[in-house]
Amino acid sequence: MAFKTRSFITQIASNKILVLNFILLIFIIGCKKTAYEEPEISLDSYQIEDGFHLEVAVSEPFIEAPVAMDFDNQGRMWVVEMKGYMRNLKGIGDEMPNGVISIMEDLDHDGVADHSKIFLDSLVLPRAISHVYGGLLYAEPPNLWFVDIENDKPVNRVLVDSAYADGGNVEHQPNGLMMHLDNWIYNAKSKYRYQRKNGKWKKEPTAFRGQWGITKDNFGRLYYNTNSVQLMGDYVLPNVTDKNPYFKGGAALNKRLTVDQRVYPLHPTSVNRGYVNGVLDKDSLLVNVTSACGPLIYTGENFDANYYENAFVCAPEANVVKRKILTFEGAKVSARQAVAETEFLASTDEGFRPVNLNNGPDGNLYVVDMHRGILQDKVFLTSYLKNQYAKKALDTIVGMGRILRVVKNENSSKDIINVETLSTSELVGLLGSKNGWLRDRAQQLLVFKNDNDAISLLKNSALDTQNAIAQIHALHTLNGMGQLDFKTLEMLLSSESKTEVLNHTLVLLENYAGENNLVSVVPLINGLVKRNNAELDLYILNTLGGWAQVSTENVFPILFELSNRYAENVIYQQGVISSLRGVEEMYKTLLDEEKSAVSQHMLKAILDKTILNKQSNKKKNTEVKPAMSNTFGYKIFRNFCATCHGFNGEGVDDLAPPLENSEYVTGSTKRLALVLLHGLAGPVHVNGTLYELNGTMPGLANNPAFTDLDIKNIISYLHSTFSEGSKGINVEQIKALRDVKPKSGGVFSEKELLELGY
């Protein structure tokens, strides 16, 4: 009996050990990091600059045809998937509601997304997103929408703008949605900016900028490009200059920053007008960009100092990403090729279509690779390129898409911070971070939360001259919260702050222009004038407008001194005009009395034109409205012509010349028809000015969407709007002109049209 009892006890003990071992096994399995199957994407065909390597952050089957992305406060990638774009050579299906905005998740935390979930679906060609105000702003033409986010689901959808993308094809519609330092949201291919204040959305005019993609540097200058210009930008902060409603200046805006537009692809690539002389070299390699897009100023913290605030630019038609080094000289900015005849990132994979770039919360650079064989939209797709696509079977590259991560070899990625969980003091501390993404997102959250506990911390940061970047962010955070005050700005003007901080201070100070503040401000500004700092002087000239309304007696001497200091520089003279809004005649009287050199030259000419426009109430940015008889032509003009020539026919820098008083509109109707049908390449002369544009105006003859009647309607609208009358043309004449083709088989040149007698 004793034996049996001992055996029973031994068995119980043995069972307990088994149970304990089982529990331990479960515990070990539970603690082990779960691994998920992730697609393996070969990057063997890619070359990247020495010292860097590429990583696949997410790829098909989790995403398809990505065109834009953003990171949420947790650091997750949100991707805009334009699945309907050019799935075949005919572009059939682009109106299908198959676009989505999806959330990428990396559940095993290995840096590669292993899950995706749809946030929004049934979208038609979506193109941009931005995490702002605790929700998501997104563009689905023609609308701009905002939704709150609850448990990764959209709620409370609000229509922000029903005319956000009013007209134009995919290549020529607004995009970007970039929250700026000034708490406004800016766009490319647009003349408007947006902001939500007290629960209500505001829309304001701004300068028209670029085509696809927009970015900014640490100071706040905006950068963008057109398809044929790698990098453009503003010399000044947005909405600072060109504020006079009766004068369209723009000498400091929309500047071409790159001297040449060369690209260096690794292999012959298919481009839309490869048949035109000079587009390809003797080895069939593309010479200059034709589809530049998605620029980015790198403001991360993982690259070497030599890469900080470099400009990176996508050239998807060449399968490359370029790197440009920015140079700041006084008020001007320029950019040059970083490494001679070599691109930062290039591939022989013709499916590699980099279309956008992003700074990441981990300090790295992210490349949005649409990975689609057909890049050119059907509206402007030439027969030449269509044949190239078919020959290479590029139309079979569909259903793919990647987000690539660019990493510096010796620098490990920083841990991603969930900024949503940070305290107010921690967020204020991030305003001085070396990581631009963290700075920007911290500012957004502070403004959105509007926590009073942040006010004193922000004022201390704004006055701390040890970190200029933190000062600038703190100032605009206070302004966004409605907590900025005149005393803080007054203290900054008399501080030892860097020029960049003083420039932002001057911009914000103009909002406080009034008699009570004038007495202390004038001596401070005069003190800044004595520094003889070219960059500071430019901001003084452009921010005296509010003060001039209060006292011309105090302001005119400052304007006069600085105007004479830069008498032959149009940027500074336009700054004077910008601040003279409302008191132009009084300043002209001063110039006439002084008899100074400047009064007889540049400024006087600009001032006279402004006064003349004012007397005739000719304001800029007032859209030309069509006569009822030209409604059909007007609609076509807005959708396809205005995107390059401007809604008032004023022309767009580095895209297209003006139509107002253009010989191509006022002259031969047949010449105008030939240009519309078969296209035109520069250089061209318009109203006595030579326009040496890199791009080419495409013809509409090969596009079945445009009938002869459509061409007639466009001509009718152009004549009635931009010339004094029309010589008329009928549908039969237009049909006959379809057979009058350029000798090259491409587009017309100005010389060839003249030789034809047009």
From TrEMBL:
It comes from Algibacter miyuki. SUPFAM superfamilies: ARM repeat, Calcium-dependent phosphotriesterase, Cytochrome c. Keywords: Heme, Iron, Membrane, Metal-binding, Transmembrane, Transmembrane helix. Pfam families: Cytochrom_C, DUF7133. The chain crosses the membrane at residues 12-30. PROSITE patterns: CYTC, PROKAR_LIPOPROTEIN. The keyword Nucleus does not apply. The keyword Magnesium does not apply. Gene3D superfamilies: Cytochrome c-like domain (1.10.760.10), Leucine-rich Repeat Variant (1.25.10.10), TolB, C-terminal domain (2.120.10.30). InterPro entries: 6-blade_b-propeller_TolB-like, ARM-like, ARM-type_fold, Cyt_c-like_dom, Cyt_c-like_dom_sf, DUF7133. It comes from the Bacteria. This is C-type cytochrome. Residues 628-722 form the Cytochrome c domain.
